[in-house]
Design goal:
The complex is a heterodimer of chains A (about 150) and B (about 400).
Chain A (H helix, E strand, L loop, with lengths): L6 E5 L3 H13 L3 E5 L2 H10 L4 E5 L7 H11 L4 E6 L4 H9 L4 E4 L5 H26 L11
Parallel strand pairs in A: 1-2, 1-3, 3-4, 4-5
Helix pairs in contact in A: 2-3
Chain B lengths: L1 E5 L3 H13 L3 E5 L2 H8 L7 E5 L7 H10 L7 E6 L4 H9 L4 E4 L4 H87 L2 H35 L10 E3 L1 H11 L1 H5 L3 E6 L5 E3 L1 H18 L7 E9 L2 E8 L29 H11 L3 E6 L5 E8 L2
Parallel strand pairs in B: 1-2, 1-3, 3-4, 4-5, 7-9
Antiparallel strand pairs in B: 6-8, 9-10, 10-12, 11-12
Helix pairs in contact in B: 5-6, 6-7, 7-9, 9-10
Classes of the chains: A alpha/beta (about 150), B alpha/beta (about 400).
Amino acid sequence: MTAHSATILVVDDEVEIQQLLRRHFTFAGHVVHLAGNGMEALELLGRHRVDVVVSDIVMPEMGGVELLEHMRAAHPLVRAVMMTGYVTQQNILACMRLGADSCVFKPFETLDKLDEALDRSLRMIAHWLEVLRQRTNIPALDTKAVG
Amino acid sequence: MHALVVDDDPTTRTQLRALLGSWGYDVLEAGDAAQAESALARRDAPLLMIVDWVMPETNGVELLRRARSLPEASPLYVIMVSGKHESAAAAYALESGADDFVSKPLDPVALRARVGVGARMLAKSEALQRYAEEMSRLAEARAAEILHADRLATLGQLAAGVAHEINNPTTFIAGNAELLERVWPDLERALAQAGDARLVAISAEVPAMLAAVRGGAERVRRIVADLKSYARKGSSDPRERELANVNESVERAARLLGSRFKHDVRLELDLGDISACRIDPPTFEQALVNLLNNACDAVQGVAGATVAVRSRQRDDGIEVVVEDNGAGIPDAVMREIWNPFFTTKPPGKGTGLGLCISQRIIAEHGGALRASNRREGGARFVISGVGS
């Protein structure tokens, strides 16, 4: 579990899944925003600084894959962990191609799987911030200030 | 066979009665059309009618037309007798529905031969009738079975959809239970401090309850995963086969049929050390489920009902044996069990397609499916040569 507190955007059309993940990530010390589909997610991403998007794939209005496409264009520094109940080769490949960090399958056997995926993404962020810091000699970057 | 002689001349009738009688027919006589019609209306109506053309009031042709137009006319072979010799007369009689035409004076030898023809025609007609009825019956049975098979196929698709729908609730049931488990120790400590003995007793139960919720959700998840795997449209394209372990397929099939194995039937699994091979899991499991299902049916009501499944790695591939201690397969039907639509189950229970399809599935996997009876009683189905 990472020590830093991150800002996570949970995107899922199932309200109970939103609440479950809100509880889980909040207990772990993160800040959590919620969205019901890709459109709402993009709207939130425009207003808040988010580190990691944890998103379902099949949703009304805009699904996870399309969200990823938009994120690549508009929010390239935001990382993504995709969740899905539909295990298809198509879905997974699309997510990987569009730059998601990982794919987790619903139902989770335990929440650890999700935590591992989130951790990987947060470590990525930490890693690149560290590289930036070293290369540019900027002292201890405040992660919250990075847009 | 009953023969009907219709002639207004009693001498002719007697003559014909004698002849037909000597050839083995039971003879009915009719002196006019009315009597003939009532004879034909009998339940055991004559099948052969020799009728004189020229009769007062209603002649033979008229009688013939009426006889042919009866709604439930049994097959009736009619020989028209007449003094007329012209071919036009014969043609007219034949067109009016007569099957044969003979001229007076009657030649017994020729008549006997012609009556023989009639008997042959009637026999053919009867055979055809029986065949038609048999075909009709089979067609109905097939239609019912196809309907049933189609319904099962639709259920398969529904199962896949339902399975997916169940995933979300299972996710948040298990997830929330897990969160509760994590925060519970802190809550428990706070409760303990309140000093209420009843609350302390209740809180001692909470971990077990949470574990039960999680365990239940996990079981649902497994059942759904098995169902989804089974309901996936299988493929006969060898390129779409996966490297899989047949033992897992056996276990999944057994889990799918879990409810059948719970109460009276014991399932023995003896899964050997086998290597992974290329199979198409959905169809392979379909074959396994079929064999297991049949085995369960075979041991219904048997004391100590047992179904045993054994898997072994052989030189020619993987072998899976499904045995039961039921009544076994009767020798008479041993060869027929592979036929499509053959079944010993009551209607509605099973389509009869299972073994036929299972055999085909195993063949597509490069193996063979064979059946035999165990010496100790019961049936044995052997899948061999898979993944070679």
